[in-house]
Amino acid sequence: MTTIPSELKTRHRAMWASGDYPGMVDTFLTPLGPRLVDACSIGPGTRVLDIAAGTGNASIPAAERGAVVTASDLTPELLHAGANRTDLELDWVVADAEALPFEDETFEVVMSAIGVMFAPHHQDAADEVVRVCEPGGTVGLLSWTPEGMLGALFRTMAPYAPAPPPGAQAPPLWGGEGHLRRLFGDRVEWNSLRREVLEITAFEHAYDYGALFKARYGPTIAVRANAERNGRADEFDAALDAFCDEWNLADPGEPARFEMQYLLAVGTRV
């Protein structure tokens, strides 16, 4: 198992605590959590672990169904925001997705909605997913695809980003069927691998989408700060505007409309 240097963990925590990710979830990401919970057939009494749970976008809907939910995340600020969103009883645990503090085969369902995909060392995170899921249990993952809008966003930002840490892989790879099969091998039998879209109609103008990411989304905030340090902030802003124009599906004069593709993968831990 790769041990992430504490300095890297600290930077990742700070990145996700920057901006306003809870507000971003409320703006357009909320539907994803219930979709994952539905796909995992979570019900009363199910022992559930949500990895990289953030503000509980999937954890809270699972708890609403009577599940016994542990919401884990590297960033305490996000867990605190999630706990403030509900009166339901959940276990909010600060945890590294690459080194989870749970016993082997503890949970009936191990899930993650656009969360574990951001752990930099994919194989380590996948190994932890398998380790803490009981045999016959369910693994449920909802991840942005490489070919979709978020995959394109990360490619747009890449020329302005700092060098990735050694061994890190791009987050949207988790949204590729082949990548998942390589990560999990014969340890998970995939029952369903479906590509779906989240339609975004929350913005009047296409550029408002990019402005929200620059103001609220930790990875974009970090990349733009690096671009500014290198005298490329205006270039970055222009590239993000061009990205918004390219992916806006609305007709001229209509409010912006985007489609963000994700892979919904549900399998059985062998």
TrEMBL record:
- Pfam families reported in the protein's UniProt record: Methyltransf_11
Q: Name one GO biological process term.
A: methylation
What keywords are annotated for this sequence in UniProt? Methyltransferase, Transferase
Molecular function (GO) terms for this protein are: S-adenosylmethionine-dependent methyltransferase activity
What name is this protein filed under?
Class I SAM-dependent methyltransferase
Q: Which domain of life is it from?
A: Bacteria
Q: What is the lineage of its organism?
A: Bacteria, Bacillati, Actinomycetota, Thermoleophilia, Solirubrobacterales
For this protein, the record's InterPro entries field holds:
Methyltransf_11, SAM-dependent_MTases_sf
Which parts of the sequence belong to the Methyltransferase type domain?
49-139
Q: Which organism is it from?
A: Solirubrobacter phytolaccae
UniProt-listed PANTHER family? 2-METHOXY-6-POLYPRENYL-1,4-BENZOQUINOL METHYLASE, MITOCHONDRIAL (PTHR43591:SF24), METHYLTRANSFERASE (PTHR43591)
